[in-house]
Specification:
This is Uroporphyrin-III C-methyltransferase. The protein is about 45% helix and about 15% strand. By secondary structure, the chain is α/β, with parallel strands linked by helices.
């Protein structure tokens, strides 16, 4: 099982494997062809309320993850569907945020890896 992360604005690469956009909104200024997305899991993204509260403020990161993980626990079907994809092939979670260390894709990767390690 290998989960990678990549900004949607970075050049797609054949080594990315299965590219899944994990943002609720389509990234600004990028055409669908250029993004080379294989799947779009809009519903796996944080709620609008949580996303707006977080505002990509690094000091809120621990609390953001805690709240986001709670939201993910409330969506077992979507999480299981994504987990099955991750089990079967290399996956790159695609996101639009500028902050590559504090974003929903990074938190989702951590959540999936913990889930798959049990």
């Amino acid at each position: 099982m290998k989960i990678a992360l990549k900004r949607v604005y970075e050049e797609p690469d054949k080594n990315d494997g299965y590219r899944i956009l994990v943002d609720r909104l389509w990234p600004r200024g990028i055409k669908k062809e250029a993004a080379a997305i294989d799947d779009w899991f809009k519903n796996i993204a944080p709620s609008d309320q949580l996303r707006q509260w977080f505002g990509h403020e690094p000091e809120k990161w621990p609390e953001f993850k805690k709240r986001y993980f709670q939201e993910l626990k409330g969506q077992p079907e979507t999480v299981n569907q994504l987990t099955e994809i991750v089990k079967s092939r290399k996956v790159t979670l695609i996101f639009g945020a500028k902050d590559t260390a504090h974003n929903n894709a990074m938190a989702l990767k951590e959540y999936l890896e913990k889930k798959l390690s049990h």
